[in-house]
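Problem 3 from the worked examples.
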Amino acid sequence: MEVTRLLWKCMLLSGLCVGTEWSLDGAELVPRARWAEQLSLSLLPPEPAPDPAHCSALLQEFANNSAALSRCLVTMARPVRLCQHCYTEYGQLRATFSRIGSPEQNSTVSCSTILLQSDRVQVIVALSDFFDELWGHSKCENCLQNNSTGILNSTSEFLDSFDSLIRCFNDTMREPPMPSQQGNFSRVCQSCNESYRHLNNLYKELEHTNALCIDLEDAMNSTRKLWSKTFNCTLPCTDTVPVIAVSAFILFLPVVFYLSSFLHSEQKKRKLILPKRFKSAASATNIQDKPN
């Protein structure tokens, strides 16, 4: 039926072109040319368009993913635990955004023209960029496995050590205070010293390998504040003795130099100046040696 209709249109168009005089000086040449152009464009197949129902479903899915990720980020803001608890929601958001820009199944068109490029504000693109920027500044990829499928073993080890140290703080604070100390802060320093050292060493190793994210940085910062300010504990530096020894040696070098120079000059003076008794003996010998 469609083919028959197209044939009739072609025959009508050809009949108009043959049965009518198309002189260059005719007044109806331009209107007829425009009509022929419009008719020829109407015969072209329409451009493929995405399925509105499919695009609407993707829009609703992106809205749900954005709400879930926002809720997780705000909930895990203090203390900061967003990398270890919100990577699933972030992955779902990225997957939905990727589906919006990808063609439908058995089709060559996507919903990007409707959802991403239909207005000046581009709300979906702006939201996606915001979440990507926040995730990038948090450096969460440093603590997650490939494709954000789970937490790295090094991250889990650090978090386990952190939880162990916090339990040590809490358990020691429940004990009765030492009678010779004000409060029980000194007991915390003694009981949790090894746990704190282990956590601090782990943090330095992760920092050296660029395996830190905002979760680990915030955990270590809060721990150091508790250790130094709340409990008034200090971690002795193992390099203190070598530094003091080298500094003392360098400071003592000028003293050794001037002392050796002074002793060396005095020794030369003693060699050059003879005692008086040697002088008198030498004079007497010279007198005896003179000829009579």
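Problem 4, a separate protein:
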Amino acid sequence: AELKVEQSPPSLIIREGPTGINFDHSFTTSDTFLWYRQDQGKSLESLFLLMSNRTVRKKGGLTASFDIKARGSPLHITASHPGLSATYFCAVDA
């Protein structure tokens, strides 16, 4: 079976107020999500490691969660400001 991953929206320009990105997948056995951040011209920075269902982690205006039934891991930006402007990546262990 073909495994699929999808990020929505594909890109996001942060405005004032809360916003977020969602990472969805078609894997049935994945139990680990990793979120990374990359500032322009810099290396990847590890943000969150989510290893079990219903895990929620918070760090500096960002909240990531993992729900195995929804097959996804949303990253919420709760307090948008210019310091959060970066490229965000999510990886899943399949």
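Solution to problem 4. The chain is about 0% helix and 50% strand. The two ends are 13 Å apart (CA to CA).
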